[in-house]
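User: Fold this; tokens only.

Assistant: Input:
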Amino acid sequence: MGSLSKLSPAKVTAQLPFPYRAPTVPRGVEPLPEEPKLGAHYDTDWARRFPARWARAVILEAALRPAVRVLADPERRGYDRLAGLEPPVIFAANHHSHVDAGLLLTSLPEPFRYKVFAAAAADYFFVNRVAAAASALALGAIPIERSEVTRRSADQSAALLDDGWNMVIFPEGGRSPDGWGQHFRGGAAYLSTRCGVPVVPVHMEGTGRILPKGRNRPRPGRTRVTFGTPMRPADGESSRRYAARIEDAVAALADEVSHDWYTARVRAHAGQSPDLTGADLGGWRRTWALGDRKPIRARKRRWPDL
């Protein structure tokens, strides 16, 4: 024992017999590679157990909602389009800022708000244990590969949808690099078809002015969240075509925000809603066409006239 007391804990453990130490690998046998525990392999099952769900509800109402109210001052529209809609549902939104996830989660009405998970980039939100645990707890996030829809990510998302969980996803795959939108990928469309659940298109306006890609400090402003009419795939429709229809629906919601409802509906019916991706221009012309991206200052509150 005297000699053991001079050794490090790891060396002491190595000298103990099995099962007090890890088993050895026989000579000539190639050991199996250790399975990664971060990124797309991070286990988030614990985040859907009761203690974590209770903690997430507290974070949502006591911390996230007041922070979004101060930072983004949101105006929410389209709740009437969700009347009669039953969970589970996929909420598919455009993506311009890290503010988007918190804004959308706090904008979901009941019964969707407290049983929801977010599809988050595995290579950004799950790169270390602290970030992964915080994302899973606060946002109910699961890791998703951005480069492609992997079987692991798809199966995990489908299992949660089948279990009655709602999903928040940003089909663009990442934040806008220049203020314009990006074409939607097929993840939301594929899961909607596979699980037989509707997709609710959502447009969020103003978050790119508050915290765009490349900026670390937010600038408070005003935002608008618009919910669209739930969508389902047509018979025999491919995921690519369905994803394009979801993108068109979000573009029509953006047109509602920029113009009046009637004009936007007429253009949407004619298939003439302005694209989220903007005009096919280059360099400064795209920036010029985007217009003013300065933050819209929060509404000033006035005391009522008595």
